[in-house]
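Review box. Two proteins, two foldings.
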Amino acid sequence: MRDHPAFLTDLGIVSCLGRGKQAVLEGLMKPERHGIARREDLLADGAPAYVGAVSGDLPALPARLAGYDSRNAGLLILALEEIRDSLEAALSRFGRQRIAVVMGTSTSGISEGEAAYFQAAKSGVLPEGFDMRRQELGSPGEIAARYLDLTGPAFTVSTACSSSSQALADGRRLLRAGLADAVLVGGVDSLCRLTLNGFRALSALSRGLCNPFSRHRDGTMIGEGAAVFLMQRDEAEIALLGAGASCDAYSMTAPDPEAGGVVMAMKAALKDAGLAAEDVDFIELHGTGTEQNDAMESRAVLEIFGKAIPCSSSKGRVGHTLGAAGAMGAAHCWLAASSMNEEGRLPPHIWDGAAAEGLLSECLVNAGDRLAPSARRVFLCNALAFGGNNVTLAIGRR
């Protein structure tokens, strides 16, 4: 059972690139930014901030789940509904008690908590009907399970920016342990003032647009979205081939400049997947655009792969989706590896082209770059979090 592969049967996704697989794939492959908004309502002093915001209305939860209703929940439901047909097929086959849920998040509905706090600060009373479940970090797993009336294991992972990558690894563990026959795995996070002001306080928020791996980089750009997979044992086009994790515990907020933990996670994912470095066709980088993260991740990738591996970070086009970032990166890999991307396009890296010694400048994907016709379509996806929580996933065709 342990070595049985975990196939990623279907994907539901929403981000500033669009709603649904096709819209996100097309946005991902364009050599320019799409959906980035300039907002003046998120930073405490009213300064502008660029964010990857999802546009348009979001679905509300049914009345029976009103206590969980939040922007975060709406993003999650939107992603779940895209894979409704696949879910119904799994339900018919396995039953509600044999489908598990593992979600990753770092904000949950904190935005609604902020609004309630501001009202209480003015009036002394919380808004009528406000429910703390909206902002509890464990809520996304509960929301998905209760929305779909699933009765298998359901929980939420919150390890900062590696949360949803860890959720995929944990979902595979449930399958291998025989605790479920199918698992909903992924992540969701939404914009909130707490996150943006926190990153700014750490001098980690970009003053303009995020510029990963440039010598001019000055911080990251926050985004929002959801990416959810249906994971099963049954053969499908794309599989979770391997997973590796580490915790370097160097600092609560700063990455280890020696990159030892990231190297460990990447090597563990390769070993778990039975891959050599030369088997990998592309790396979806964590690539936040902060000075320390980009330098550290460059060091790790160059140590294992040298300068020949195509790489790209999506943070410059969707922002850092925090707890959803790992699943979002995995989703980008899924889309690029799938038959939806028949031409073998690679997602171009969005930056100003200002290379710096020691960074991955020579590896970054340019507009129009494609996989070789002989490529197996095996990708790595990095998610590197506060506290030194590092997860690497290997995703692609078997």
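Next protein.
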Amino acid sequence: MTGATILVVAKAPVAGEVKTRLAATVGAHHAARLAQAALLDTLAVCESVFPRGRRVLALAGSIHRTVDPAQLLQALTGWHVVGQDGPTFAHRLATAHRDVHATHGGPVVQLGMDTPHVTARHLEHVIAATRGGRPVLGRAPDGGWWVLATTSPGDVAGLPLVPMSHPDTWVRTRAAVEGAAGTVLHTAELGDVDTAADAHAVAAAAPHTRFAHAWRQLDTTPESRTA
């Protein structure tokens, strides 16, 4: 139903290497399992919108060190999996956008792995917005962003200069993309999962996801998670 390509940028869900802020509350193993559940949810919803040949995962780290490699490998059937290249996360994002434009074609709709509550409707709205030839950026409540859709590889020319995971990352990303491409369109705001409080809110918002199920399986109570 779409000529766009989905680009999921993720870190392999390896215990001790992902979701360290969440791990401080629930432990490294549980945090990695939650990260894998979030990634699986993201892959599944993307598959409902983007056809084979239009799905790319840019992964940092080894699938074989994840909490359940077989599960993840099975979920990646029909995906083109590539590594990440660049000295900083911002550089790696820009490189991934340019590479996908070159190898698969655009527009390129890029997500992370920590919005397991994203829906097909969210993605369809972003795709529709790109049809006018404009990039699209979706804000997160913490000042970051959850989606960046580019319609040309030149849209990300200024992205490597943007510091990621800062309260003004969305503002600076918008300025960088507008400096290269002109007006950036906006889409729905979505929170991501960095802390236990975030995880509790996301699980409540999307109770039928793998992420929500994994969260409910934890032994600790919501009160102790957010303490």
